[in-house]
Amino acid sequence: MLGFAMGTMILALGIPLVSWIPMATWSVYFVQLMEGSGFTQNGTADFITKVMPQMFFPMILTVIVVLFALYRMGLRDAVRISLARALLASMTFGNAYSFAYSLAGAALSLAVMAGLKKWDKFSLLGVSAAGGVCHNLGQLAVAVLETARLGWYLPALLASGTAAGVVIGIAGGLAVERVRL
Q1: How far apart are CA 179 and CA 26, in angstroms?
Q2: Residue spans of alpha helices (H) in the chain
Q3: Which of 79, 124, 158, 168 matches a 20 to 30 Å C-alpha distance to 69?
């Protein structure tokens, strides 16, 4: 069911297959993007406008799938997908600490999104924005357990979580609207 949902979303949203490339290949792809955009000649502006948006695409896609699952497949499937995402990400790119960060962010985010969806007072965009903020708060909570000096990072995390949640909410809204299971 997950494979079908992700495949259908790729077709419905026009998501390029490059979002499924493993990280080592992904790094080579970004070097190509930086060279192709003239990053070495034009500086940071081209990197920000041409390369950075594509860097976050795979991460955003995985969160869109969880949001889609919450709205179209139900909470149980969204929890399964979220757990699988946290486990696979930590096995692929990290260690036990990365699993703790990913799981804390995913659990808090999904719990808040499920509660707000059930409360039925927020749009999908609002639910997603709250999920983005809570994901960052969950990860910050794990980080503060390691060192309490990271609390100053909270304002930046609130802003970035809200922005990411809005972007994911817009894309997730399109997916929920266009994809029928």
Answers
A1: 27
A2: 2-13, 23-36, 39-42, 44-46, 52-55, 57-72, 75-93, 96-119, 124-146, 154-178
A3: 158
For residue 58, give the amino acid letter. P
What sign results for the dihedral spanned by CA atoms 22, 24, 88, 86? Answer: negative
Could you tell me the two tokens for 13? 């949203």
Model-level pTM?
0.69
How far apart are the C-alpha atoms of 153 and 169, rounded to whole Å?
Answer: 24
Residue at 112: amino acid letter: V
**Residue 165 and residue 179: Cα distance in Å, rounded?**
20
Structure token digits, residue 81: 């997908």
In angstroms, the CA 23 to CA 11 distance is 22
Q: Give the residue among 155, 174, 180, 178 at the shortest CA–CA distance from 60.
A: 174
How far is the C-alpha of 87 from the C-alpha of 69, rounded, in Å?
17
